[in-house]
Amino acid sequence: MNRPSFRYPNTRPEVRVDEARTLPAAYYTDPELFRRELAAIHYAMWLHAGRSEQLPEPGSFFTVRFAGVNVIVLRNAAGAIVAFHNTCRHRGTLLCKEAAGTLPGRIRCAYHAWTYDLDGQLLSAPNMEKVIGFDRADYPLGRVACAEWDGHIFINLAPRPQPFAEYLGGLDAKFAPWRMAELKRVERKVYHLNANWKLVIQNYSECLHCPIAHPLLNQYSHYLSGDNEPPRPTWLGGRMDLRDGVETLSLDGKSGRPPLPGLAPEDRRRVYYYALLPNLLLNLHPDYMLTFELWPIAVDRTDIVCDWHFHPEAIARADFDPAGAIEFWDLTNRQDWELSDLAQAGIATRGYRPGPYSNREELLLALDRFVLERLARADAEPSA
Ligand code: FES
Ligand SMILES: [Fe+2]
Fold first, then answer.
1. Bridge-partner residues for 293, per DSSP?
2. Cβ of 95 below 6 Å from ligand 1
3. Residue 3: helix, strand or coil by DSSP?
4. What is the pLDDT at residue 9?
5. Spatial distance between the Cα atoms of 276 and 235, rounded to a whole number of angstroms
6. 118-171 pLDDT per residue, tens
7. Residue 80 alpha carbon to ligand 2 centre in Å
């Protein structure tokens, strides 16, 4: 175990054992710290909510639900994507109870029929005619910021969101050759984890566990072939190489599909793994895209929505068969989720003490520092 690799020498900067340790247990077990994290991170940053193709026409909508949040994302009459808090301005009732669907040009509350247009303006409010000072214009639906990037829809619950381009921090240019806007979703799997959201990103951000937990992945992509970028304020990422003869990550390592159009030759031999903080994990393969949305439900519960997206020309072929890619990642995901749940269970015991990170776990340390900095910043500006 742990013999040095001569092909992939450990060239990453050294770390000091007393400066690179895992977080105290409370960050994984304390509901109050979880609430503070939500306020400082999830309620303050851009969140991946879905894909533009989920809203094909005016009135199309889907809802986003996680701890303390329920948002309607829809396409308005003008064709723009907008989002609102899913709560009536009369007495707060949930407006859309379905996960997705099509609205008939307006949103009507099931309780007393307050009715809103697709821009959130209150059109009618029965039985309010003798309420002195009541003005419909004062009660639009609560607006949530929206942005689109290459087919991805993001929402932001903050009153003054960070500029979206600044949030992307150059990833839009970096990943433009994958032409993600063209890709179509072929499969969705939803997983329910008994683990804190940070454990999922930590698991994602290192492959030292790959030879132990993912023999098939390690057979197709050497666990030390990764090359991480320096951590950024809003994302952490790196890439790994496919071994000789391996075309993509699928059960048999074969693709049966052309590479995505526009990819450079070297990118047909790599898989990119990027965590856009705090809720999108983006895997870019030579021939398909995998997305994971992470939704924190409780301090020790996270829902993960995993989608497989392929190029329409590949999908149109008579021999299109995504099963190998789907099954490869479903298998690998389940291995990772089990480890994340085990990490949660062990950290929650009285015996847990923060442990030392490897210098190859620098992205995990960066995630911990991101969380600590965000919490400290929120404490310094409680009104932000
Ligand atoms: S709560 Fe919505 S109309 Fe009364
Ligand atoms: Fe893994």
1. 280, 305
2. no
3. coil
4. 85
5. 5
6. 999 999 999 999 999 999 999 999 999 999 999 999 999 999 999 999 999 999
7. 37
Is domain 26-43+170-380 given the CATH code 3.90.380.10 in the classification? Answer: yes
For residue range 227-273, what is the model confidence (pLDDT) as tens digits?
A: 899 999 999 999 999 999 999 999 999 999 999 999 999 999 999 99
Do 326 and 306 form a contact (C-beta atoms < 8 A)?
Answer: no
| Whether residue 184 has pLDDT greater than 60 | yes
Closest CA to 155 of 290, 33, 55: 55
- The confidence score (pLDDT) of residue 383 equals 60
* Ligand 1 atom index nearest CA of 95: 2
Please report which confidence band the pLDDT of residue 1 belongs to, taking 50, 70 and 90 as the band edges.
very low
Question: What does each C-alpha distance from 377 to 39, 41, 93, 169, 262 come to in angstroms?
Answer: 11, 10, 33, 20, 41
Please give the CATH topology (third level) of the domain spanning 60-161: Rieske Iron-sulfur Protein (2.102.10)
Residue 126 CA, closest ligand 1 atom number: 3
Cα separation values, 194 from 4, 256, 337, 345, Å:
34, 36, 9, 8
Domain-wise residue ranges, the chain: 26-43+170-380, 60-161
What was the pLDDT predicted at 352?
A: 98
CB-based burial label for 312 (10 Å; 0-12, 13-18, 19+): exposed
Shortest-distance Cα residue to atom 3 of ligand 1 = 112
CB-count exposure of residue 150 (10 Å: 0-12, 13-18, 19+): middle
Nearest C-alpha neighbor of 343 from the set 190, 203, 192: 203
370 DSSP 8-state letter: H
Query: pLDDT averaged over the chain?
Result: 96
Percentage of the chain modeled with pLDDT above 90: 95
